[in-house]
Fold each of these.
Amino acid sequence: MADNGDPVTQYCVKVQFEAGGPAVTGWWSVEATARRCYRDWIGVYGSDPAVVIRLVEETAGGQRVLETWPARDGEPAPEHPAPAT
């Protein structure tokens, strides 16, 4: 792809199955696709209390975490409610 000077933004979903452990990652150039995968991975892996799932935006300027499951304060993010018990 030719470099036309436009910044390239990539979206990464990272799943860690234990604190400090390796991460499984997926990369997309479309944010909506990455967000769909993020939600899907919450559905598949989110019930394990040790799992952390992050949606990260990466540009030439660095990385920015857009979403984290579970939310940093231990509660699910509002758009991803916890399953009923």
Amino acid sequence: MTLNKTKLNRILVMWLPLTLAASFWPLPSNAKENQKCQLPHSGNLAGNVTLEPSCTYFETMTINTSNTNIDCKGATLDGRHTEKTGILISSKGNHLTNVNIKNCTVTNFTQMGILVTSEIPNFQRSKDPKIQ
């Protein structure tokens, strides 16, 4: 089969935009880093934790242990408009103290960037204002 110049030009006109679109498809600037960017312990963090500064994490960070210090070092928590909460600090009804989080970018979560809660339903909470 021989191609004349007109047929060859039509083929190039049809395939060239597809080739260019595929080669210039925008990838996240840190796409390679994202392969290794997962929060330790499935996002349930305790103790002293330092995150990779060039990473974007696509999961919720959960803290329910006292004496927890998180330094994101500029890393991003991105909910991709699908996750509800970026950072969940929950005492689960227990006394929780000395929780520090710094240098985090929290973005694209559907409900809250940061939620601090006891997770005790209202009907189980005391009506007595003297009880803390």
Amino acid sequence: MGECVGYQALSSSEWVKKTWIARALENGDVDVHVFPTDLGFEKAKNDYNKLWDQAFGTVPYPKGMTDAQGSSMYTQLACHARYVFKLPNGEWNTHESWDMESWRPDVSWDYGMNPATWLIHKCNWRN
């Protein structure tokens, strides 16, 4: 991402313990890193709207985001929540955070959430 400015906040919500937002100085791209609680890793797949609300409950939504960028990031977050699982070593396959990027295209819900296409994109689709 290069040089950026950002902000973060801890949360006492059920599924999200921290949200960190960074904006690239060069081009304005936004990265959002959501750090789920243990319960979030396990249960957030049951209600994507609740997860989204908890992710942005303690930090301001990034200014200047288009509807398409917001939609893409919502689908990315839902995808991470849906396809998270524990690895044999006890760690989560998505690591400690679910990361969304504003520069990713706004794909259809079916493409973003389909198990067959997930095997290809792993919630990180490209143009």
Amino acid sequence: MGIKDFAYIRCSTTKQVKDGNTIEVQLKGIQDYITKNNIEIPHGNWYIDGAQSAKNLNRREFKKLENIVKNGDAERIFIYKRDRLIRDVQDLYTIQNNFVVDKRVKVISVKDGEIAWHNANEEFMQVVYSAKDKLEITQASERTLDNLYMSALKGNYTIASIPIGARRCKRGDAKKAIEFPDENVKDIVFVFDYIADVKCSLQERVDYLNSIQHMAIKWTTHNLTRMITNPIYSGDFVTKRYKIENHTPGVITKEKQNRAIKNLYYKGQRNTYQYVFKDIIHCDTCDTILDQQSTKKRKRNGKGKIYLYYYCPACGYRVSESTVLSELEGRLDRRFMLQEHGKFLKEAVERKTRIKRLINFYNQMYVSGKLEFELAVGEIEKLKQDYKELKIWTDKYYKDNDVIVFSRMSYRAKRIYLESHVKYIKYNAKNLKFDIIYK
């Protein structure tokens, strides 16, 4: 028994009878050949790919056979005809290199002989045969596409899956045309109007249609996208190969479909950055409300950081959001705490402010050379330790008394507090000073 002998059979369709390449014909042909040559192939060594095209080698049963060859467990592979295994020059060289040369496996065709070569003339003939098979499959594909085009010209809808809300019908010579029933037209128009007019994310649209159980189907981002982008709803039938205008009576206008497609992937405004003091800061020189501006500094790793600014369109200067926060948060914190908690935290906040100023002072003294390094570091470390202990104490107070100061508020809470307590903020660009005018 030839344990290392295998047979491979492929059929493009289960009803492929015209060219005599049915699975039964191939089975009988290989069985007669191996019986005549006293070869026996075990029952488990037969691999059959049904309804598989030969345009490439990506076939389920062939992949199993290929793994057996890679493991060195095969010596001979029998096929009925060469086009049952390969129909492409590139696949021919794959078989020659991976099977014949690397693993010493013989690929034998019952009708065409061994698929291999040992000299340039044999290689040329094998390439010619494969190119001929490739030409045949390409011509067959083109004939199929041409037939589909001629069928579509008659009014047939030649795509297997019909659009949402449509049904098959007969129209003139077309036996597989489609139409949109009157009871579905209103629902289809509603979907296109909703997509064209309402601005929200694609997933939010899907959730809404499912929530109202529209047209009694399960909506997904996939089928909604296919529906909106399908030109058949406006009357045109479009494929990768051709376009037929006024193919089917449309239910919407092309202008409405274009608006729906444009609005389908709406993602909102791009620059939704959170400016805490938006429309509150005024220029002290010209009394203009400062506008918002953002820049992005890209780093080598491709990532970038967003920098937010307030700028005066009249005077031309700008100030960063971080600068405004560092200057105003402490002052707003003190006012907020005095209003809400009296004098309990006033001393702690003032001590924090003094410590920060002293740290900056010692840093400047060291940089200017007026203070030795050891002394400056020692003083700064003491101040940092005091600041840390003070922060621990204030954090504990915040937690025990449920205190939320301005600097610890959310963006929305900060905006609400500013709108209710602050009339406007004056910014003097020359002196870099902020004046808070409360209500």
